[in-house]
Amino acid sequence: MTQAINPSPKPPMTPSISSSTAGRTTRSTSARMAKNRAFIYLCLGCTGLAILILTVLLLSIFIQGIGYINLDFLRNLNSSDPTTAGVYTALIGTIIVCAICAATAIPLGVGTAILIEEFRPRAKNTGHISGKAWAIGWGATAAILLLTYFVGHNAGGRVLEFSLPGVGAIKFKAVVLVWILGLVVFAAAWFAVVHFIAKESVLLFVHGIVETNIRNLAGVPSIVYGILGVTAFATMFGLFGDMGAGKFAIGQSWYDQYVGEDRNSYYIPVSGPVDKVEKTPAAADMTYYARPGSSQTVSLTFLPEDEAKERRDSIEGEMDAFDDALRDAIDATRGARGRGPATIDAATAEGIVDEAMAAGRWESDPAELRKDLIPLVAAIDGLDRRDLSRARREVINTAVDREYRTRLTDTLMVGAMPVRTDRKAWYYLSLPLGRGVMAGGLTLMLVVLPIVIVASQEALKAVPDSYRQGALAMGATRWQAVSKTALPAAIPGICTGTILAISRAIGEAAPLLVLGGVGFITATPQHAMDRFAAMPMQIFQWAREPDEGFQHIAAAGIIILLVVLLSFNALAIYIRQRASRHQ
Amino acid sequence: MSSLNPPPVPSVTRLGTPRSDKLRDLREYGILGVLILFGLITLGVTLGIIGILSVETFTFFDPAGHKDAQQENTVVHVTDFLFGTQWNPLLGAEKHFGVMPLVIGTFKIVFVSMVFAIPVGLISAIWLSEYASHRARSIIKPVLEVLAGIPTVVFGFFAVTFITPVLLRWEWLQRPVYDDAGNVLTDPVTGATVTEPAGFLGWLDFGTYNALGAGLAVGIMCLPIITSLSEDALRAVPKALREGALGLGSSKFETSVKVVFPAALSGIVAALLLAIARAVGETMIVALAAGGRSVDMGSVGSALSLTDPVLPMTGYMVQMFTGDAPHGSVEYYSSYAVAGTLFVITLGLTVLGNQVQKRFREKYS
Questions:
Q1: B193: DSSP letter
Q2: Model pTM?
Q3: Residue A5 confidence (pLDDT) above 50
Q4: Which chain A residue is nearest to residue B216, measuring alpha carbons?
Q5: Half-sphere exposure of A371 (CA within 13 A, CB side)
Q6: Annotated domain spans of chain B
C-alpha cells in the first residue's frame, strides 16, 4: 500500500515512487499534498468568514447607532417620539429583573449541582429500590392525595380570613391551606421513606432523574419557559384568584376617591376592595378626609344643591366685571380702530392685568394670580378675532378656577360618587404575582437554571477528589467536606459559569415577551409586581417600528446592551484566568 | 442499609466547634433535604412545562373546552391539526388549524441555517482542533465566545437591517422590466430598455421578509455552538489515533478528515442535533426577520420557496402572545398546541443528542 511505503508524508515531500505502480490506490502523493494544502486554505477561509461576520455585524450596528448615544439617551424614559425616547426605563427594568433572576437561580442551581456531584449515592446497585420502599412511598402519596382531595373538596370553597396588625385583612380559600398542609405531609412521608428504609436507593433514583432532566432542560426553547412563567408565576395556576385582584396582598392601601367642588380629589382610607362602603355618604357632614401618603386630615362638607349653585353663581357674577375690564384693556391695544390684531408687549401686558384685576374682588392671593395671568395676556400679542377671544377666555378661566379653589375648599360636590382606588407601597406583594418584575425575574431564572447547574457541575467535577477524601478522612461529614474544601475550590468556576448565565438572562427576550407582551411602558417599576420593560424587549419593539428613527435608537440600544454583555464576559474571562494562574 | 455519613469518630479529631453527633447528623439531613428539594424543583420545571402544555393542548382539541368550540367549524381534530396544510387562525369562519405550514416554515429556516452553519462550523472546528497554533486559538476562541454571547434579538436586527437589504437590492446589477404580456418595457422618449435593480444573483425576487435572510441569521447564531461543541469532541479523540494515522503515512488532511473526524462523529452529531434544536426554538430572529405569513402549501414551489416570508412555529407564538387573542378563544389555545408541538420536536432532538453523546463519552474516557 502506498501509505505504508511512505514513512511520513507530512514534512518534506517524498518522491512519489509508487504513484503509478499503486495497486489499490490511484492517487499520487502530489495530489494528496495539494489536497492537504487546499484544505488548510478552506479552513482559514471558513474561520476567516466567522471573524468577518462578527466584524460586519458589530460595525453595521455601530455605524447605525453610535450617533444616537448620548447622556440624554441614557437618562430619558421611553417615548413614542424616537428623538426623545431613551433607554432608562428598559435599563432599570433589566437590572431589577436580572437581580431577581440571579438571586434565585444561583442558590437553586449551585444547590442542585452540589446534590448531583457531591451527594452522589455510593451504592453499586443502581436504580434498584426495594419493594417495601416503593409500596410505602406510593401508598403514602396516594393516601395524602386522596385526603387532600376530600378535605379540599369539602372545605375548599370556604374563604378563610384573618387580619394582621399593619397589614390588614388577609383572605384566601381554604383549599390553599389544604394543599400546603398536604405538601408538608407528603414531604415528611418521603423524608421518612428516605431516612428509614431506602436512603441510598431513593437518592439514586432522585439523582438519575434530576441529572437526565437537567441535560434535557438545556435544550428547551426559551419561549416555552415563558409559557411556564405565565402559568406558574403570573397567574399561579389560578390558585389565588385572578391577576390584579388576587386573594393575597401586602402593602396595598385602599381609598374612596371623591371630586370636590374646588376640582381637587379627596381620598377616604377604607379597609379593602371587598367591603364597599355606601356609595353616597348619608351624613351631610364628614371629617377626616386625607390624601394617600400625607398625614394631613381635612374636614369636608357636602353642599346642599341650591347652596352650591348659589356660591358658584356668585363667583362667576363677580368675575363679569373682571371680564369686561379685561376686554376693554385688550381692545385698547388693537389696531384698525379696535378691530385688528392686538399689540401687547411685556409692559402693556402688566398694565392690562393690573387694570382688569382692579375691577374684580379677589379672595385668592392677588400677587400670585397676577404672576400667572401676565404670560397668558402677553401671549395674546398679534392675535385677531376668534383666536383672540379664545385666548381671553383662557385668562378668565384661569382666574375663575383660582377663585373656585380658594373659596370652595373643603366642600364636596353634590351627591359626589366615590371611585375605589388603591395605592401600592414599594414593598407591595400580591399573589398571583401578575405580569411584573418578580414574575419576569423568576421566569428568567427558569431559563438560566440549567446553565448554572451544568456550569457548577463542571466546576465541582474539576476539583480533585483528594480534597474531599482528605476532609472525610479527618472525620468531616459530607457537607463539611463539601462546604469547607470542594466548594471554595470550585468558586471561580462557578462564578464564571454564573456570570455567563446571567448575561444570557440579560439578552433573553422571548420569555419576557410571552410574559408581558409588547406594552408601551414609560415608567420604571415602583414595586415587585409592577409592569416593566427590559433592554432586549425594548430593542425588539423599536426594531419593529416602521419609522427610520426607531431603527437608529434600536441600534443605539443594542450598542449599550452589547457593552454591558461584553463587560460581563470580560469579567468572566478575568476570573477564569486569575483562577488558572493560582492553581 | 448503607450509612450516609462515615461512622462518628472520637471527638478529638472532629472539625469545627464541638457539637453532639446527633446535632451534626440532624444538620446533615437538613441540608440534604434542602438540596433534594432544589433538585425536585428542577424536576418540577419539566413536569410543569409538560403539564401546562398538555392540559392546554387537550383543551384546544376538546369540543367543549373553549368558548369558540360551540360554533361548529372551530372544533379541531387531532388529525386536522397534525396533517392539515392550511394555517389561518384569524380568518373568521374560514379558520384552519393545520400545523404543517408552521412546521415546514420552521424547517425551512433550519435548513438554510444548517446549510450555512454546518460546513463553516465543522471546518472551523477541525482547523481549531487540528491545525491552529496556540496563538491563533487564543484569538479565535474569544471571538467565538463573543459571537455566542450576543443576544438573538441582535441577530434579528442584523437580519432586517443588513442581510435582507443585501439580498433585496443589488443596485449594480440591473435587469429589464417586463409588462403584463411579457414584453420588455422601453422608455418612450429615449427608446432605452427600462431596468430595475435585480434581487440576489439577478433572478430571485426577495420579499422584505424572507426565509433566506432569517435562516442565515439563525445560522450565524448557531455557528459558535457547532464550532465549540465539535471542537471539544475532536479534541477528546485520543492522541494515539492521530499518531497512528500519521505513522502509517497519512497526510495531515487525511488524518483529520478520515481518522479523527469519524472517531469524533458521535460527539459531532450530538453537537449538530443540539444546534438544530436551538435553531428550531429560535424566536427573536424569526419574529423580526421571517415575516408573518404562513407557508403556502398550494404548490411545491411556494412550499419550498426561500424568497417568500415564512411563519415558523415560534413566530406564530410571538404573534399570539404579543397580540390580543382573547383569553379562552380557539386562537389562544392554538398557540399552546403549537408550543406543545415545538416542545416535542426540540425535546426529541435534545434527548437524541444527549444519548448520542453519552455513548461517545463511554467510548473514549
A1: B
A2: 0.76
A3: no
A4: A53
A5: 5
A6: 98-325
